[in-house]
Every structure is written in structure tokens, then in C-alpha cells.
Amino acid sequence: MMEENNNVEKNESEMSMQDLMDLYEKPVRIGQIIKGKVIQLDEKEAIVALVGASHDGKIALEEASAGSSDSLAEVLQVGQEIEAKVIRRPQENDSFFILSMVEVQREEALVDIRKAFESNETLTVKIKEAVKGGLVGFYMGQRVFIPASHVELNTVKDLNVYQGQDMEVSVIEIEERRGTTRIVASRRKKLQAEKEVVESSAWENFEEGQVIEGRVERLTDFGAFVNVNGVDGLLHVSEISFGKVGKPSDVLKIGDSVKVKIISLDKEKKRLSLSLKALAENPWTNIEEKYPAGSITLGKVVRFTDFGAFIELEPGVDGLAHISQLSHKRVESPSEVLKIGETVKVKILDSSEANKKVSLSLKAIE
């Protein structure tokens, strides 16, 4: 508090006439923090009787609080004692000192921000807007910039969704430059710390063979990354289904909830392998009963080789029709008599669960 304000801690009624004259002869300076009492207010403006000043002060709504308020009645009350900074002296057309409580709050906020920076504590800022490269928030009137890369752990496509939200952040940079203070903060730092705690707990409880609920986070050509209890595990394309899967996106979507089985884990290297098909019935189980030798069934031609054609009987079960079993005529290539995707009638020559093989014949039913 300024020295002149310290001189008026005692009640003015206790001062001598000379004390009062000396007090009021001292000029009130721009930037001075001064005490006063609210004597009148409406929705947009308050009048303040100032201690040690020859004129009353005036505070506009926008200078009363760094927060968003529609009425001064939400911020001040008649009779309330306040401290404010003088931002304009009385002029010919306005005999009031123009005051700002916001500027006092901004100074106090900077103290809080520096303390948080030094002690690695977090602050809660109100996000005002999305700008190029990040978000702008305010803490008690102080502008705080959060770079886009520090908003979430992953890339954010639309920063506008954070407008108006409260965000807990860590201060990562304070820079004094040309009379202004640049403050940079990070939400990512806090999220990363929380993620590490969650992951540590998850790894302690993971067990091979465990069935667990997860959420599809990312899709690649070779598989899907599924988040289970805060940890991303790999669901390889070969573990999605017993049937042939061209690419994971043919079966899964980002955001899908899936139940998976942990088929392997390495706690030291933090590697987690998951499976969907391990929870499904193996289509080769009791294959001899489902497709007994001598029976006739329908299948779909799925691929050719030099020695024959593979025909899908059901997802995960492909039978081989050897080139010698495609026709009574001589066949040089399966494509001479079949088309990929074609549905054909075949005869089961042999089926084996142990060898995962089904032998088929087209010529046996010609």
C-alpha cells in the first residue's frame, strides 16, 4: 500500500485540522492505489468516497471485476470498503477520479501466477477465445496463452469448443517484455501427470487372459489402438476376427467400445497386446460335425493360387478346391472356371479341426 494510504489508517475524526489539511493537500497520482467506500451504485457505475482525495471516485462495471458480470450489484454493495487504482484524474467535464479494481486484481494475479510458476502449482483460467496457435484465457484479469499443443495430449482439431470453459493449467513461461508480461501455460502437463498415475495403476492390475472393456482410439493399416484403463494396447488386424479383415477400419470405428482379451503383456516395455477374436467361438471347433465329408454346401470364392481356389464356407473357414477338383475338363488356371466373389456349390471331400483344413470339390457335383 502506498505511504500516503498508510497515514490514514486511523479514523479521520481522530486527526487534527492540520493533519487533515496536510492529507488533502497531497496530490493523488495516476497509478496510485487508494481506499474508499461505495456510496452509490447502479447496474453500470459506482460512486466511491475516497480517503485522502479532494474528489470522489467512479468505477465502471468493466473496471470493477475481472470476471464477467452484467450488473455492479453482483460485485459491489453500498457501504463496501474497497481498494482501487487511479487510472484518470478529474477533468473539466468529469469531476471524479476514474478508478479500477481490475488493475489491482491484475497485480495480485501476477503475484499468484509467479508463485504458481515457482512452486509448480496449477491455476484455473477462464478461456475467452481461440486464436491462431492456441487459446487465450484470463486469470483475474491477466492474459494467459495456452499453445494448441498444450491443450490436450492429442491433437485438437477445433479449439473453439473450449471457449467459455474453466481450464486448470500449469504456468510454463513468464516473460517481461516492453513493460508487459507474457504468460504461457499448459494443460497438457497436468493431463500427462494424471495419465501417468492412471497408467501406473493399470499396469499393476493387468494380467494375461484378462477380459476388459476398451475404447478404440486410433486405426492403422496393421491394427487398432484400444485404450483400456488409460493404457493404449494394440489390437492387431489378425486378432480382430477369425474371418479375413482387409483393414481395421472395415470393422471398427474410432470411439467404438469393445470388449477385448489381453493375450500378452510386457510391463517393463509397456507393451499390451489385445484380441477380439479370442472372445469369439473358434469357427474350426467341431468342423467335422459342421461340414461332414460327403455333404453339399455353398461357399464364396475368395482367392486363387496356382494349385486351386480357396472358397469361404463361413468367416474364418476357407476350404481348398484343388485345381484337379474344379472341373472334369482340364483346367490350367482357376480363373478359367471361377470368379472372385462368386457363390458356388461344392462338395466336402474331407474336413479336419486339428489341421484346420477342408477339402472341396466342384466337379463332384457337376
TrEMBL record:
EC? Answer: 1.17.7.4
UniProt entry keywords in alphabetical sequence? Oxidoreductase, Ribonucleoprotein, Ribosomal protein
Top-level class of the enzyme under EC nomenclature: oxidoreductase
Q: Which residues form a coiled coil?
A: none
| Heme in keyword set | no
Task: State if Ribonucleoprotein is listed as a keyword.
Answer: yes
Give the matching PROSITE patterns: S1
Quick one: signal sequence residues? none
> Sorted alphabetically, which Pfam families does this protein's record hold?
S1
Per UniProt, what is one GO molecular function of this protein? 4-hydroxy-3-methylbut-2-enyl diphosphate reductase activity
Domain of life of the organism encoding this protein: Bacteria
Which residue ranges does the record assign to the S1 motif domain?
31-102, 120-188, 209-277, 294-363
Family named by the database record: Belongs to the bacterial ribosomal protein bS1 family.
Protein name listed in UniProt: 4-hydroxy-3-methylbut-2-enyl diphosphate reductase
Query: What is the species listed in this Swiss-Prot or TrEMBL entry?
Result: Youngiibacter multivorans
The taxonomic lineage of its organism, from the top, reads: Bacteria, Bacillati, Bacillota, Clostridia, Eubacteriales
